[in-house]
Task: inverse folding
């Protein structure tokens, strides 16, 4: 059933066992044929205006329907190595990789430059320029619809990128467990120009998220900042497991730990309707 626009909607999702190889998984939106090969992981270093290089971790499924650029939370340091392995693989955007692949979506995960800490920098015009360069790179690859998705602190980056996107360059933006209360980073999703976004937007809020800077009750407040003409949907979910003492950590309901499959498939259902 399609998600209705501008309406608060509850989608109570059951916890599932997360599988790490999509060849043996049965994702609800699976589009790959039975004989499809594994997704291909590669690394690209793209040049930026200031002469630095932005490293990207790219995973291509054998059938491509679109691309999702995934912005992790925290400091943003994924630790992508030249051989496409990563030092920090517990983040939701990396744990969900096989689900996106099974559903036909290329994933692009930007790393930080020289292990820099992105806290406090994601809403800056300079980072919007970085995102614009990543989007341009993705568009040149195959011309498929592109979505931006940011989780926690990464939602600030996704919102900033969408607010400053070139016309027609992206198909939509997803803000998941968005930081809406100022903490150590000194910035929130409200600093990222939400009222300038003119592409379809999905706001995902987990009722069981206990992270103090990302209260699920703020979802409607976030949605209300968008311009009235913008197509905005709020997706409410619940559930998740906790294997961290930090309520804002990846292995908690804040990071959709234990409900990756159901949450990601709900996001993909929305994205499919916007392609």
Result:
């Amino acid at each position: 059933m399609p998600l209705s626009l501008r309406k608060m909607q509850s989608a109570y999702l059951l916890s599932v066992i997360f599988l790490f190889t999509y060849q043996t998984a049965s994702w609800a939106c699976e589009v790959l044929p039975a004989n499809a090969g594994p997704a291909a992981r590669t690394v690209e270093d793209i040049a930026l205006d200031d002469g630095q290089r932005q490293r990207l971790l790219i995973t291509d499924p054998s059938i491509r329907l679109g691309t999702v650029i995934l912005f992790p939370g925290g400091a943003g340091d994924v630790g992508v190595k030249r051989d496409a392995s990563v030092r920090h693989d517990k983040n939701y955007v990396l744990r969900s990789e096989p689900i996106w692949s099974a559903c036909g979506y290329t994933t692009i995960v930007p790393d930080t430059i020289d292990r820099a800490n992105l806290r406090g920098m994601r809403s800056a015009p300079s980072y919007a320029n970085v995102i614009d360069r990543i989007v341009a790179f993705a568009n040149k690859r195959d011309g498929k619809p592109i979505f931006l998705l940011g989780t926690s602190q990464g939602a600030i980056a996704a919102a900033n990128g969408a607010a400053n996107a070139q016309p027609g360059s992206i198909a939509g933006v997803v803000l998941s467990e968005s930081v809406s209360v100022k903490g150590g980073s000194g910035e929130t999703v409200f600093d990222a120009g939400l009222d300038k976004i003119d592409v379809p937007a999905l706001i995902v809020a987990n009722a069981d998220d206990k992270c103090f800077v990302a209260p699920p009750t703020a979802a409607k407040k976030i949605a209300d900042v968008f311009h009235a003409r913008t197509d905005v949907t709020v997706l409410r979910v619940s559930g998740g497991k906790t294997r961290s003492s930090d309520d804002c950590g990846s292995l908690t309901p804040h990071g959709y730990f234990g409900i990756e499959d159901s949450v990601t498939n709900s996001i993909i259902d929305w994205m499919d309707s916007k392609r």
About this structure: The longest strand covers residues 40-47. Strands lie at 8-10, 40-47, 53-60, 66-71, 105-110, 146-151, 172-176, 201-206, 232-237. The chain has one domain: 8-274.
